């Protein structure tokens, strides 16, 4: 019999909020998490991700709202009675206890029989591939190994939910990628319901079934990686999803969702994806990979916008180049290219109107 996840059907956050001294760190978070889902809470520093996680964990009392598991209200329960496993950025292992004892700790607190504890600890050690390190102290392990111990300790109690707060932030880039795969594997093999906090959109996109993007304590968008990547709800989410070009222009005309935007020497056909009114200040979001650098003499694709600029910086990024181009009126554009143009040369960029997303400039911070 292997380790498994505690069973429930759905976990519901209803209007969950938390204030500190009258300031809302998290406001009105509504979210239903299905069993087995991997949810990432994503957003810049200070947006309220950790506050949300700590409210779930029972480490912070709520100031508004409630949390339910299958009709049972759980925000009133103390942390240890929620049956959640926690993994923190700094591992939070007991330095004086061996790896095996660290993993066994939660089971001993639950007063499980000795044989059961031994069996589960052995399984958890095998799961994170640390069998040979069972007797070592955490200080004798690498950062990645210590984080594996922390993960084993979280899953060994067969938790109803695993909460992870930036678990990979202290690891170097290579290890971070390895552990990312490891976390995904564990999630799949154990069917763990997971809530994972990160500020790294790539990490969130690669791990999560659904993402919750927060800004200043408020939900901006909840969706699958594809939904967020292809249809950001506002320019803030677009910015977070890698639309590095956010052009501040004015809406010149609009017919259906076909827009013309202009300003700073540019005039572009684009696509309105939010309610905007002619004359409005807008943000036009464009991914670097959607600005196509044309080779000399290459004709423009029909219907595409053509933008002229001078190449500023060319940076090799393995297989592709990150190119910064400045237009005559000083608009800086970030471009991805499969060839390296010469710095200082004048180039033409093609932009498909369907790839230039027009958003309202104003962000009121409320959920969309
Ligand atoms: P980070 O990635 O930097 O941890 P975060 O998105 O997790 O950021 P939170 O730690 O949840 O953000 O903080 C959200 C807001 O609440 C911030 O403005 C923060 O200063 C404030 N805050 C968090 N904890 C406390 C506290 N104990 N007392 C007062 N203010 C707090």
Please tell me about this protein's structure.
The protein is α+β, with helices and mostly antiparallel strands and 368 residues long. The protein has two domains: 10-235, Rossmann fold (3-Layer(aba) Sandwich); 243-360, Nucleic acid-binding proteins (OB fold (Dihydrolipoamide Acetyltransferase, E2P), Beta Barrel). It has helices at 49-57, 99-109, 114-127, 143-155, 173-190, 201-207, 225-230, 235-240; strands at residues 10-20, 23-34, 38-42, 64-69, 72-73, 84-87, 161-165, 194-198, 210-215, 218-223, 245-255, 258-263, 266-272, 281-286, 291-293, 305-316, 321-326, 332-337, 346-351, 357-360. The strands form four sheets. The chain has a six-stranded mixed β-sheet, with helices on both faces. The chain has a five-stranded mixed beta barrel with strand order 11-12-13-20-14. Strand 4 and strand 5 form a beta hairpin. Helix 3 (114-127) packs across helix 4. The longest helix is centred in the middle third of the chain and has 18 residues, at 173-190. The chain is elongated and about 75 Å long. Residues 11-241 form the ABC transporter domain.
From the N-terminal CA to the C-terminal CA, the straight-line distance is: 45 Å
Computed CA radius of gyration, to the nearest angstrom = 24 Å
Corresponding CATH superfamily of the largest domain: P-loop containing nucleotide triphosphate hydrolases
Helix content: 10-25%
Strand content: 35-45%
Poorly predicted runs of 5 or more residues: none
Task: Report the top-level CATH class of the largest domain.
Answer: Alpha Beta
GO cellular component, one term: ATP-binding cassette (ABC) transporter complex
Domain ABC transporter: 11-241
InterPro entries: AAA+_ATPase, ABC_SmlMolc_Importer, ABC_transporter-like_ATP-bd, ABC_transporter-like_CS, Mo/tungstate-bd_C_term_dom, NA-bd_OB-fold, P-loop_NTPase, Transp-assoc_OB_typ2
Organism: Protaetiibacter intestinalis
